[in-house]
């Protein structure tokens, strides 16, 4: 039962790391990752990440790995990475998480990348990126049964989809406000 509240963190390595934890909260912080990941959740449950500004310039800004049943709400996550590709929010092996009213912006990274993650809910999510050949949201490698309500995803670079689905199924998109990609809004690749 840890609470980290109202802080500014700017460190070169993992700026904030929550490992093997439960029932912890990260509220009203500014997290600046310069060189590695800004925020990492690993093997944790029932975590609350609320009202934070998370910024970085690495290949992954906010990593959620093997973490479940957590709430991520009203966060602004920004990537200023110019060289190389990556993901602003990276979910791997994580289930039953809820994301509400988060804004994800990127220069050259995909907004949300999910691998082997299922039963996650995204409500009121805004994803904006303008990098070359990056997608707004990627559902990859057995990311099933995720739910998106009121999604606003734009990928305005030279070739990227608002949503790219690969080898994943039974994902639901309801009342999407804006799905805009170049050249395609939604791309499905079964294999």
Task: Please tell me about this protein's structure.
- It is a single chain.
- This protein is mainly β and 191 residues long.
- The chain contains no helices and 24 strands.
- It has strands spanning 3-5, 8-11, 16-19, 25-27, 30-33, 39-42, 48-50, 53-56, 60-65, 71-73, 76-79, 87-92, 98-100, 103-106, 110-115, 121-123, 126-129, 137-140, 147-149, 152-155, 163-166, 172-174, 178-180, 186-189.
- The protein has an 8-stranded parallel β-sheet, with no helix packed on it.
- It is globular, with a radius of gyration of 15 Å.
- The model has no long low-confidence stretch (mean pLDDT 84).
- Helix content estimate: under 10%
Q: Averaged pLDDT, please?
A: 84
What summary fits the major beta sheet? 8 strands, parallel
| Shape label | globular
For the biggest β-sheet, the strand order reads: 1-4-7-10-13-16-19-22
The radius of gyration is: 15 Å
Note the gap between the termini. 42 Å
SSE run: EEEEEEEEEEEEEEEEEEEEEEEE
| DSSP helical segment count | 0
Q: Structural class given helices, strands, pairing?
A: mainly beta
| Secondary structure tally: strands | 24
Q: What portion of residues belong to β-strands?
A: over 45%
User: Could you name the ranges where pLDDT drops below 50 across 5 or more consecutive residues?
Assistant: none
